[in-house]
Specification:
- The protein is 14% helix and 37% strand.
- The chain has 3 helices and 17 strands.
- It has helices spanning 27-34, 91-96, 154-163; strands spanning 3-5, 12-14, 17-18, 24-25, 37-39, 46-53, 56-59, 67-69, 76-82, 88-90, 101-102, 109-110, 114-115, 121-122, 131-133, 140-147, 150-153.
- The longest helix has 10 residues, at 154-163.
Protein backbone atom coordinates (compact mmCIF):
# COMPACT_ATOMS: atom_id res chain seq x y z
CA UNK A 1 0.00 0.00 0.00
CA UNK A 2 1.29 3.50 -0.75
CA UNK A 3 2.18 5.67 2.28
CA UNK A 4 0.73 9.21 2.21
CA UNK A 5 -0.53 11.82 4.65
CA UNK A 6 -4.13 10.93 5.52
CA UNK A 7 -6.50 13.79 4.68
CA UNK A 8 -8.58 13.14 7.82
CA UNK A 9 -6.04 12.62 10.65
CA UNK A 10 -3.01 14.24 9.02
CA UNK A 11 -0.77 11.28 9.80
CA UNK A 12 1.47 9.40 7.39
CA UNK A 13 -0.24 6.05 6.90
CA UNK A 14 -0.96 3.39 4.32
CA UNK A 15 -3.74 4.54 1.97
CA UNK A 16 -6.92 2.47 2.41
CA UNK A 17 -9.16 4.47 0.07
CA UNK A 18 -9.54 7.82 -1.66
CA UNK A 19 -12.31 10.36 -1.30
CA UNK A 20 -14.32 12.11 -4.01
CA UNK A 21 -11.46 14.53 -4.75
CA UNK A 22 -8.77 11.79 -4.71
CA UNK A 23 -7.75 12.68 -1.13
CA UNK A 24 -6.09 9.75 0.73
CA UNK A 25 -7.65 8.09 3.80
CA UNK A 26 -5.84 5.70 6.18
CA UNK A 27 -7.66 2.50 7.28
CA UNK A 28 -8.94 3.96 10.58
CA UNK A 29 -10.21 7.19 9.03
CA UNK A 30 -11.79 5.30 6.14
CA UNK A 31 -13.81 3.29 8.67
CA UNK A 32 -14.75 6.47 10.56
CA UNK A 33 -15.35 8.83 7.63
CA UNK A 34 -16.11 6.98 4.38
CA UNK A 35 -17.05 3.38 5.06
CA UNK A 36 -20.71 2.64 4.48
CA UNK A 37 -22.57 2.52 7.78
CA UNK A 38 -25.54 0.38 8.65
CA UNK A 39 -27.48 -0.57 11.75
CA UNK A 40 -25.79 -3.61 13.31
CA UNK A 41 -28.19 -6.54 13.56
CA UNK A 42 -26.46 -7.68 16.78
CA UNK A 43 -26.36 -4.49 18.92
CA UNK A 44 -28.46 -1.98 16.95
CA UNK A 45 -25.66 0.61 16.69
CA UNK A 46 -25.24 2.47 13.39
CA UNK A 47 -21.57 1.92 12.50
CA UNK A 48 -19.16 0.80 9.81
CA UNK A 49 -19.90 -2.76 8.80
CA UNK A 50 -17.17 -5.30 9.61
CA UNK A 51 -18.99 -8.17 7.92
CA UNK A 52 -22.22 -9.05 6.22
CA UNK A 53 -23.84 -12.38 7.12
CA UNK A 54 -26.29 -12.74 4.28
CA UNK A 55 -28.30 -9.52 4.57
CA UNK A 56 -27.40 -9.00 8.26
CA UNK A 57 -24.84 -6.26 9.07
CA UNK A 58 -22.32 -6.92 11.87
CA UNK A 59 -20.30 -3.99 13.34
CA UNK A 60 -16.64 -4.26 14.44
CA UNK A 61 -17.59 -4.47 18.12
CA UNK A 62 -19.89 -7.45 17.54
CA UNK A 63 -17.81 -9.23 14.89
CA UNK A 64 -16.05 -12.33 16.18
CA UNK A 65 -12.99 -13.28 14.18
CA UNK A 66 -12.97 -16.89 13.01
CA UNK A 67 -10.75 -19.33 14.90
CA UNK A 68 -8.51 -21.15 12.45
CA UNK A 69 -5.12 -22.83 12.34
CA UNK A 70 -2.51 -20.08 11.86
CA UNK A 71 -0.41 -20.61 8.75
CA UNK A 72 2.76 -19.42 10.57
CA UNK A 73 2.63 -20.98 14.06
CA UNK A 74 0.12 -23.78 13.46
CA UNK A 75 -1.94 -22.86 16.57
CA UNK A 76 -5.74 -22.61 16.56
CA UNK A 77 -6.31 -18.89 17.18
CA UNK A 78 -8.48 -15.96 16.09
CA UNK A 79 -7.59 -14.95 12.56
CA UNK A 80 -6.21 -11.41 12.45
CA UNK A 81 -5.26 -11.24 8.77
CA UNK A 82 -4.71 -13.42 5.72
CA UNK A 83 -1.84 -13.86 3.32
CA UNK A 84 -2.29 -12.78 -0.28
CA UNK A 85 -3.46 -16.29 -1.12
CA UNK A 86 -5.96 -16.44 1.79
CA UNK A 87 -4.05 -18.37 4.46
CA UNK A 88 -4.95 -17.27 8.05
CA UNK A 89 -2.48 -15.44 10.33
CA UNK A 90 -3.16 -15.02 14.08
CA UNK A 91 -2.62 -11.69 15.91
CA UNK A 92 0.52 -12.92 17.67
CA UNK A 93 2.21 -13.89 14.41
CA UNK A 94 0.91 -10.81 12.60
CA UNK A 95 2.72 -8.59 15.13
CA UNK A 96 5.76 -10.86 15.27
CA UNK A 97 6.42 -10.70 11.53
CA UNK A 98 6.68 -6.91 11.63
CA UNK A 99 10.43 -6.32 11.69
CA UNK A 100 11.80 -4.12 14.49
CA UNK A 101 13.85 -1.05 13.63
CA UNK A 102 16.00 1.31 15.69
CA UNK A 103 14.02 4.40 16.76
CA UNK A 104 15.51 7.63 15.41
CA UNK A 105 14.68 9.40 18.72
CA UNK A 106 15.69 7.02 21.56
CA UNK A 107 17.77 4.61 19.44
CA UNK A 108 16.04 1.58 21.02
CA UNK A 109 15.19 -1.41 18.84
CA UNK A 110 11.43 -1.94 18.55
CA UNK A 111 8.34 -1.81 16.35
CA UNK A 112 7.84 1.33 14.28
CA UNK A 113 4.82 3.36 15.43
CA UNK A 114 5.23 6.21 12.95
CA UNK A 115 7.80 7.71 10.58
CA UNK A 116 8.92 11.31 10.52
CA UNK A 117 8.81 13.51 7.41
CA UNK A 118 12.19 12.08 6.32
CA UNK A 119 11.00 8.46 6.72
CA UNK A 120 12.99 7.79 9.91
CA UNK A 121 11.33 5.31 12.33
CA UNK A 122 9.76 6.49 15.61
CA UNK A 123 8.71 4.02 18.35
CA UNK A 124 5.45 4.29 20.30
CA UNK A 125 7.23 5.66 23.40
CA UNK A 126 8.71 8.58 21.45
CA UNK A 127 5.78 9.31 19.14
CA UNK A 128 3.67 12.33 20.04
CA UNK A 129 0.44 13.01 18.21
CA UNK A 130 0.67 16.47 16.57
CA UNK A 131 -1.14 19.30 18.35
CA UNK A 132 -3.95 21.30 16.75
CA UNK A 133 -6.65 23.70 17.89
CA UNK A 134 -9.86 21.71 18.35
CA UNK A 135 -12.63 23.15 16.16
CA UNK A 136 -15.19 22.38 18.89
CA UNK A 137 -13.58 23.35 22.24
CA UNK A 138 -10.83 25.65 20.85
CA UNK A 139 -8.15 24.08 23.05
CA UNK A 140 -4.73 23.17 21.64
CA UNK A 141 -4.60 19.41 22.18
CA UNK A 142 -3.35 16.28 20.38
CA UNK A 143 -5.52 15.94 17.32
CA UNK A 144 -7.78 12.90 17.03
CA UNK A 145 -9.51 13.34 13.70
CA UNK A 146 -10.14 15.89 10.96
CA UNK A 147 -13.68 16.91 10.08
CA UNK A 148 -15.07 19.34 7.50
CA UNK A 149 -14.72 22.16 10.07
CA UNK A 150 -11.20 21.29 11.27
CA UNK A 151 -9.52 18.98 13.78
CA UNK A 152 -11.18 17.45 16.84
CA UNK A 153 -9.47 16.52 20.10
CA UNK A 154 -10.10 13.07 21.59
CA UNK A 155 -12.68 14.31 24.11
CA UNK A 156 -14.78 16.20 21.56
CA UNK A 157 -14.54 13.35 19.05
CA UNK A 158 -15.80 10.88 21.68
CA UNK A 159 -18.59 13.26 22.73
CA UNK A 160 -19.80 13.75 19.16
CA UNK A 161 -19.70 10.01 18.47
CA UNK A 162 -21.69 9.32 21.63
CA UNK A 163 -24.29 11.95 20.65
CA UNK A 164 -24.52 10.43 17.16
CA UNK A 165 -25.10 6.98 18.62
CA UNK A 166 -21.75 5.61 17.48
CA UNK A 167 -19.37 3.81 19.82
Amino acid sequence: DPIEVCSACGEEQAVEARGENDEPFCPACYRNELAPKARCDECGTKAAVAMWKGNRAICRDCYERPVEKCWICGEERSTHARTGDGRPICSKCYVAVRLPERCSECHELGLVWQRDEDGRPICSRCYQRPLAVCSRCNRRLPRKRRTKTGFLCGGCDASLRYQAGLK
